[in-house]
Amino acid sequence: MPTDDEPRFHAAVTAAVPVSPSLRRIRFAGPGLAGFASSGDPDERLLVEFGDEARSYTVRHWDPAAHALDVDFAVHAGGAAAAWARGATPGMPVRLSRPKGWYRPPADARWQLLLADLSALPAAARIVETLPAGVAAHLIAEVPEAADEQRWTTPADLTVTWLHGTGNGLTPSALPDRLATLDLPAGPGYLWSAGETGASRRIRRHVRRELGWTSDRFDVMGYWQADKERWLAGYRRVEARIEELTVAGLSAGQSLDEVRDTVDDALTEAGL
């Protein structure tokens, strides 16, 4: 039997339309999605299996009545997933896993800060669209070009800052440095961030070390790894050390956040 995070739902492409120069929205539907259910999280992600490839993507929209869901694929870069998305046509089969999300703002959060590159823009869009009235939110979105900007309808008090031509495999992400320069609002807040793994580690480090936030006030995810082959080769050289530090920290009664801090330091020292 497949586990919850393995592709199990059979579907097929029914439509594919451009959202922007760098994103293409593909709709999957079919009777095989009859047992599919949303997690209820606006940043929910699932595995999309096509051919021999399986990659994680955000559910942009789920229609339970039609047994259909939309996924926005980045098509600006190379790779098997981007090539598949550029050539996707109705009838092409896929398998999908159950979705899972991480967006968990505390009940007392007076404001929210969202940081996203192109890979996280679909999730950020869903978050924005589901924000309730009275919530102050600031989204900083990093996209390949100005034509990738989007507009959404939300009852929240939303401001959006667009960064063009940085991150997204083009240059190092500008999101960590932008976060470090922000004058954050007063009162309790919440940060949600997703994008390239190295940039996400820098963002988490700033939130933990500079801002001193506890883990209930932020969720920071790495969606993809820049220069993945080089990174994996480097990680293999320090993998035993990382495992040693993890076991030692947990055995000493450290919290998961403290263990992650130690691991992040070790990865940084290794140039990863």
From TrEMBL:
Listed Pfam families? FAD_binding_9, SIP
**InterPro entries per record:** FAD-bd_FR_type (IPR017927), FNR_nucleotide-bd (IPR039261), Riboflavin_synthase-like_b-brl (IPR017938), SIP_FAD-bd (IPR013113), SIP_fam (IPR039374), SIP_rossman_dom (IPR007037)
Molecular function in Gene Ontology = oxidoreductase activity
Gene3D superfamilies, alphabetized: Nucleotide-binding domain of ferredoxin-NADP reductase (FNR) module, Translation factors
For the FAD-binding FR-type domain, which residue ranges apply? 6-106
Q: What PROSITE patterns does its record include? A: FAD_FR (PS51384)
Protein name stated in the entry:
NADPH-dependent ferric siderophore reductase, contains FAD-binding and SIP domains
